Amino acid sequence: MRKVLVITYYWPPAGGPGVQRWLKFVKYLRDFGVEPVLYIPENPHYPLLDESFLQDIPDDLKIYKHSVKEPYRIAAILSSKKTKRISSGIIQTKNQSFLEKTLLWIRGNLFIPDARKFWVKPSVIFLKGVLEKEGIDTIITTGPPHSVHLIGYYLKKSISLKWIADFRDPWTTIGYHKKLKLTSSAEKKHKQLEFDVLNTADKIIVTSNTTKQEFQQLTNKPIKVITNGFDGDIAASDNLDSKFTIAHIGSLLSGRNPRNLWKVLSDLVNENIDFKNAMQLRFIGVVSEEILASIAEFGLQDFIEIVGYVSHQEALAYQKSSQVLILVEIDSQDTIGIIPGKLFEYMAAKRPILGVGPRNWEVAGIIDETETGRIFDYADDIALKNVLLNWFQDFQKGELQISSGSIEQYSRRELTRKLVEYI
């Protein structure tokens, strides 16, 4: 069986979406004749933990580890709350304290490409021995953090091997990049590193067509789109909420603030007593203070239920029991190619998806193809209101459902098949 070394920062017990992509690939690689070998940090700083992911690790999986020095541990002495928020990707855009502005400047300008950069050189030295010992000639790096790609870059430069770089998110065009208070020199360094990685890797994997088109402007190397997906059965729940729950699963960052949705919900609450009595806004995961302030501005604070972070298994249960699932992306041209991993689990839950995102958002095509919901931009009020009202009327009749057609192509096992064909 052919061996492949997978180099990733996020691995169980890490929680959140970043860990799931390669955990699921590794889970199914052996089914297609590939034996994965893992390389992960020995002492990582994970903002979120989820022990339930441990059950998906294949038996007898060989895992190599090496320690990593992370500045987040030092910064946490100054402010553990702000440090955890920044390392989770939650960047407040308003009312930033001097400390938070300072931490952001340091993060963006001194730790390039990111705060895990100190793991690169020790890993390159360590992995040369591992590759020789295991007889491995193919490696896969996955980012963010994009410093992981630099491990592949330096290994490729020093020894003969095949390197595949997997980008779960873009690099210099990702939403939070512009919030890092980068100097022109730092911005140039980021772009140069991105260019170097894209033009040194043998093959590239991305999660969206938009990112593929973006990278094709920078390199002639082969690029394959392999999206994220869902694992498990496609099945509707027999235990739907009795209230008209409109739920968001996962972190809701400051930039993802669909004010038109809050306005429409406020209007419906004020105009329709049945809607008012039935509606509930449920948030599973971290919600930024700016989002909560906007919801309160529209008088919806009494309809909020904040559950907080839960295990992945619990999140799946909430998805299946909710009446409507919210999917939100930042309103920016830079985010039209961002396809949240939760989209595919939403589809498998067979509940209507209500999306608000940038105009020409790539997610809209997937939603239309699978007939799993509706997508709106941030300026859309009337159509959004009509859809919500129609869904509420179907809810009242006990008929709120969707078809979830043709979504098997997004199962984790099928996506692993595509991965093996590519590598």
From TrEMBL:
Biological process GO terms, please? Answer: lipopolysaccharide biosynthetic process
Q: Which keywords does the record carry?
A: Transferase
Q: Which GO terms describe its molecular function?
A: glycosyltransferase activity
The UniProt entry, under SUPFAM superfamilies, shows: UDP-Glycosyltransferase/glycogen phosphorylase
Q: Which CDD domains match?
A: GT4_WbuB-like (cd03794)
Q: PANTHER family from the entry?
A: GLYCOSYLTRANSFERASE WBBK-RELATED
Protein's UniProt name = Glycosyl transferase family 4
Instruction: Say which species the protein is native to.
Output: Maribacter caenipelagi
